[in-house]
Amino acid sequence: MLSFLLSSLIAQATPPTPPPEEIFQEQQVLPLPGKLDSVPTFNSNSPELVLGEGILLSTFPGDGKKVPSAHLNFLFRGRFDIFAHHVAKADPPENLRSLYLGIILHNPTKRPVTVNVLQAASYLSQPDAPFIELPYLVEDPTGKVFAGPGDRVMSDILRGKRQATFPAKIVLAPKQSQMLLNLPIPVQGLTPPLNGRSTLMRLQSSGTVYAASLAMFAKTNSDGSERAPTLEEWQNLLNNGELSTPRDKTPTPLEDTGKPRIYGRVAGVAGGSFWRALIVDNPKTKFLTIPNPGQAVSYALSTLHGGTLGTNQIQSAPMLARYPDTAYRAHGNYAIQYSMKLPLYNNTSTPKTVAVAIQTPIKEDQLVKPGLRFFSTPAKQTFFRGSVRVRYKDDQGMPKTKFVHLVQKRGQPGEPLVVLNMKASDRRLVEVDFLYPPDATPPQVLTVSTQK
To answer: Is residue 15, in this structure, part of any structural domain at all?
Structure first.
């Protein structure tokens, strides 16, 4: 009690930290052309903190299940993605059993179904991808720069990798199930006993399948060592279990209610895997005219309700199926790939220096002034941490592909991904790709600027 009183007195005597100074960039802010594709994404992110065994997300039918409401009855066929992002914590602190994350697929048909694993990666926070301080921008040709498991997974998938722990394909016999993932989230030996696992798989199925993500504590062998749950044990949990608790905060309605907005976390099937954008002056042209010297134009990225930066464009993927206490849309578009083409054109008679950047402006829904607001010194909160691929022709006309890892704080203008010295009448195609990383906070913008 004494320490609490002392800290309160010190807090009262210490003058409040002044808010960081803002910078205003007067410019155009436009909606991002294109749209999400129709590839469904199994999105398992609620509850994010998993303290007990249970069903995280099931698209199985509820018929014959002990808790029918825990199942969303959604079939996948052809291309679909599976994304899972969960955290385990020892609760109570002395309970150091590993929590296993299981992802199961089931073939409800009378014919075998082949599921090709096109790309896949799964990493732990500890020891695979600890959260560390990184430079704001660093080139990363080999995928060795990351902070956090979601960051590392998105980097792998952006590079087209399939981790060695995943098979190239699985064949589901008629009416049978198989585990696609059965991996632990260990907490033993960690201080605090807290760990997370991020997973993303791009799949192609020859027939219809159901999918579920489940949480179960490790089983114990006779010698006291841990073992992974068996397929039968997972199936028993799927058939007889209930939704994992405690639940995350229930989201507020999408419409502005005047109360603090709670987006909630996602547990369901989101509609979309890729957003492809061809950014041109207008639909009748095939080029993007560079801005006038000293000017910039930005295109909104990952906009959401309450954060459209004046574009009135909601990019958050719609939910095709969801639990009533989880997010209404896939706010943030975690694991969705943005693929953007900018066919830049210097329509002047003099050389120009043009930069392309990703930026994290201060979040606004309707812009207070016609442009973007930033902080002169970066805020403490990290709002974006992920890899970006840039393809372009350099000033010598040689094709270049580079991978850049970005870290951006709230309100950070960011550094250019690429700077081009464009001759008079020069045309240059720039392609920017990234998967929106877990633990990032939208919105961002893609900005093209011309130096004075």
So the answer is: no
Q: Please count the CA atoms within 13 angstroms of the CA of 35 that sit on its side-chain side.
A: 5
Is 353 in the same domain as 308?
yes
Q: How far apart are CA 21 and CA 82, in angstroms?
A: 42
Same domain, 295 and 236: no
Per the CB < 8 A criterion, the answer to whether 105 and 201 are in contact is: no
Instruction: Show which of 240, 259, 291 is a domain's final residue.
Output: 240
Q: What are the backbone angles phi and psi of residue 89, rounded to the nearest 5°?
A: -140, 135
Chain length of the chain: 452
Q: CA-CA distance, 312 to 289, in Å (whole number)?
A: 24
Other beta carbons less than 10 A from residue 299's beta carbon = 23
Predicted model pTM: 0.93
For residues 295 and 314, is the Cβ–Cβ distance under 8 A? no
Question: Is residue 109 one of the residues assigned to a domain?
Answer: yes
Contact at 8 Å (CB) between 257 and 268?
no
Measure the CA–CA gap between 321 and 222, rounded to whole angstroms. Answer: 42
- Assess contact for 374 and 359: CB atoms under 8 A: yes
For the chain, what is the domain count? 2
Within-domain flag for 40: no
Q: Is a pLDDT exceeding 60 seen at residue 13?
A: no
User: Phi-psi category of 440—alpha, beta or left, where left has phi over 0 and alpha has psi -120 to 50?
Assistant: beta
41 is a domain residue: no
172-194 average pLDDT score: 97
